[in-house]
Every structure is written in C-alpha cells, then in structure tokens.
C-alpha cells in the first residue's frame, strides 16, 4: 500500500512538473546569443543591438553575417554553411518553381517565426517591390533550420539558432530591419565570365551595383526599383519612393549605362 501511495505521489508531482513546463511554453525564440558570439562581436567593435546585414551566396552555399561596428562601418562577423537551397542560379519567378530567390530584401520583426516547423525561421520578404513589378509570385520563402528546402535556405537547427538570435537582438536594439543580399555567387568578373551565357547576367549586374557599393564603403546601400530594375543610393528619403514601373531619376542613367 505504501509503495502504491508513493507511486501515486510521484505521478502527481510529475504531472505538476509537466504542467509547469507547458505553462512556460516554447522558448526557442528567446534563447540568448552565445557568449562566444557576443565576445566575437566585441572583438570587431560591435554588440548584439547593433544593425546587421546578411549575405547569401548560392553557388558556394555560404551565408555571411555582418555587423555595424563603432567606426560606423560593417565588418564580417561569421560565415555559415548553407545546408540546402533549391533550384538553380537565378531569381525566383513563380510559385511552385522550387527556386530560392535572389535580390535585395529587408527583414522586419513581423517576419520572424519563433514557432517554425523548421525549428526557427524568418521570411525573406519575397515578393519585394522588384518582384511585384515583374508579377513574380511565391510565398513563405524562409531562412530556417533543418536541412530541407523547397525554395528556402536551410541552415540546420544549430545554424539558425545563432542567426535567428542575432536578427532578434538587432531588432531589440531599435533597428527597423535587417538587409538581406541574396546573391547567385561572389560578384567577381571571373564568376561573371563563367556564367556569361546565363539569361540572368543583366539582372546580376544590377545587383552588383549594390554589392560593390557595400564592398567599397562597408555601409549598407539603400535600394529601390525603377524601370523594373534595382537601383541603389538614388532615392531621397525625404521624397516618395520610386515608381517601380516608371522612369528612373536622371542620376541613375550614367550608372545603368556603365553596366
């Protein structure tokens, strides 16, 4: 009898403990950045609350995290292997083409998903202004955990834990967005020569204007769309955004003609 009573008490305590865990809820999205990463940020003169930028290179399956430093410029913090992306080099065109997107995107706090089926995730923001101007379609395109991709960038659970936490803490530092540069490859002339026969070369050269601006200044380029093309550092924040289907400002013609 005593043994039965003790088992009953133990079972009751276990149920209470489980209920307590359930009450606390799923805390995946609030796991802090590791001390190792915080220390690495300090080494480059940055911190979790500083702005960040993410660069993805499909061909080499790499994701870079850049952080703004005390100098006001961005520095490379860490490079992660991409476990899986889908499709080929080139932009996403339509829903169901199993293509991971390319272009410039802005992740906002509303795009974070702490309860993702792929551990943690954030939406890249496809379709953006450029995609919409070309009537491109697609939805739920993410950077997430696990190693499965249907148009997304899968980083493994361990990888996304760090990346998600850094994006989250950047937002907690009152930063409105995190810029994503989703690229086919490192934008060198050698790589353009290797892919010279691609139908996407003109699109990629437009993207290169933005990546070159960042590489030269280590400052985030502002991007907009006119004449159904990406343009960079042209739009005056005091004026209305550019018309994605309208003519580009005169200042852009010399840049575009040089491509």
From TrEMBL:
InterPro entries reported for this sequence: LD_TPept_cat_dom (IPR005490), Transpep_catalytic_dom (IPR038063)
Active site: 144, 152
Keyword Transmembrane: no
CDD domains given in the database record: YkuD_like (cd16913)
GO BP: any one term: regulation of cell shape
Keywords attached to this entry: Cell shape, Cell wall biogenesis/degradation, Peptidoglycan synthesis, Transferase
Pathway: Cell wall biogenesis; peptidoglycan biosynthesis
GO molecular function: carboxypeptidase activity; transferase activity
Domain L,D-TPase catalytic span(s) in chain numbering: 52-179
Protein family (similarity comment): Belongs to the YkuD family.
Annotated protein name in UniProt: Murein L,D-transpeptidase
Organism of origin: Candidatus Devosia phytovorans
Lineage start: Bacteria, Pseudomonadati, Pseudomonadota, Alphaproteobacteria, Hyphomicrobiales
